[in-house]
Amino acid sequence: xxxxxxxxxxxxxxxxxxxxxxxxxxxxxxxxxxxxxxxxxxxxxxxxxxxxxxxxxxxxxxxxxxxxxxxxxxxxxxxxxxxxxxxxxxxxxxxxxxxxxxxxxxxxxxxxxxxxxxxxxxxxxxxxxxxxxxxxxxxxxx
Length: 142
What we know:
This protein has helices at residues 3-9, 25-34, 50-60, 71-80, 94-100, 102-119; strands at residues 15-19, 38-43, 87-92, 122-127.
């Protein structure tokens, strides 16, 4: 059993976490699904603003076509899509987005944390960057 699968099997609490790992995305997907969880890859590499972030979210989370591309719509759509099943979101490229649009990352983190607390199913992993900016310094590490 891999370290990630063991972590998920122990019943990781819903929330947003920083995660130090060199596992490939394919290996993460395999481990997450083998643990019986849903997996979402949120890859914002190359995204530099809120509209680009929301476009990536629409695709990654399979949001409905009527998704309004604003923060309230994202929060509502995430809660509407809750199936009750545990889900791990691997957010790649968050650091690059943060360099260009600090507010977008801050708001996204708030929305993810609120959904995790309300739904009880969402765990968001921010793959650890080489530096830890202030915005995420308080985010717990798993």
